[in-house]
Amino acid sequence: MAEVFINGRFLSQTQTGVQRYGRGVLEQLSMEPDRVLKPGKIGRFGAIRWEQFRLPRQLKGQGNPLLVNFCNTAPFSYANQIVTIHDLATFDHPEWFRPSFAKYYAWLLPRIAKGALKVVTVSEWSKQRIMEQFHLNEAKIHVIPPAVDPALLEAEEEGVDGLENGFILMVGSLDPRKQFDKAALILQKEAERQGLTLVIAGAAQSHFISMHLPIGPSIRFIPSPSDGQLAWLYRHCALVLHPSLYEGFSLVPHEALAFGARVLVSDIPVHREALKDSVSYVDPKQLTALPDAVMQCLKAPSPTSNATTTFGYASSGKRWRTLIEDVQ
Question: Pick from 56, 255, 284, 97: which is nearest to 180 by CA?
Fold first, then answer.
């Protein structure tokens, strides 16, 4: 792919589902290292300045080649680019984010969505929201979902000290939309009665408002688990719980299914779109029903490991290559 560059800012960020998506697609595109442009270690605001000012100047000096952006942000002043917008949570629920972050996204996303050649998103649900919010033509937006990362499936499992089989697992950033705090508080007493541990695997991110997790003997927090630890957690849990109020796609349930875990998710449109009947559902606005829903899931047979719950990054890479070739 001649004259194509990748905005590699995400490679220096803490890995969440968004960054994992970027890494998964990038690996499939097999770009030469000098085609992946990175800001270096210049801090959060330095990275923004690099992306918005230095990066477009560098590209314009090289004849305005195509720039590909995987992780929500892109230079607002550069037109010859493809941008990826995973969801519009900052528009639909700005109260979940630090005010400065929500305001920056409210300023940036409309500009890059309208100015780019193409917009990629990760679900049909997100596509509809982007069309509504930014008044874009449907033909401009392409859906290329995430997939279960082969590196996670192939990781050498690392046990977690003090944990044995049979815990309830929640995975993800400590983001208010995930409702890990509310779920843990509601499940805490039942978990203690049943001798179950509630494991929350994830770290706080600076752009979210704080989440106050309950503390108790039945609750275990594992910040920033490695792929080996995460693989072990998925493999040895009794249930993966994902009670999120809002998602652009939601990779965690797919990872859990790939490891053969039981899965209980919030009943929101994007989960119904991607997961269909492969999981159990609970109303995320009625979490008082969560203890009964969890106990019912724990009594159900474990599913068979299913690493094909999403189409895989080989297919997503092919879709990305086709899109890039179409716009060149």
Answer: 284
